[in-house]
Design a protein that fits this description.
Blueprint: H1 3-14, H2 22-26, H3 32-40, H4 45-57, H5 64-72
Length: 74
């Protein structure tokens, strides 16, 4: 299966801001390449997920445990 698709599916299941419908398919795509680079460069993926939610989206909508769970899917 395509890694971009798999990462997007993981982000969709995490869905910290509750995007719905058609928008869910593209709501988190902008982060896929950055996640791939993070893993490839062996950087801290949890830090990236927390940056995406807390800084870029602008608020921590999910618990720290939920953010850790999304890592399992990668």
């Amino acid at each position: 299966m395509d890694i971009n698709y798999e990462i997007n599916e993981a982000l969709k299941s995490w869905n910290p801001i509750g995007v719905k419908g058609v928008d869910l398919e593209i709501g988190y795509v902008r982060y896929v390449d950055e996640i791939i680079d993070c893993v490839r460069n062996k950087n801290n993926l949890l830090n990236l997920i927390e940056d995406i939610e807390g800084n870029r989206i602008g608020f921590f909508y999910t618990s720290s445990e939920d953010r850790k769970l999304v890592l399992i899917k990668f």
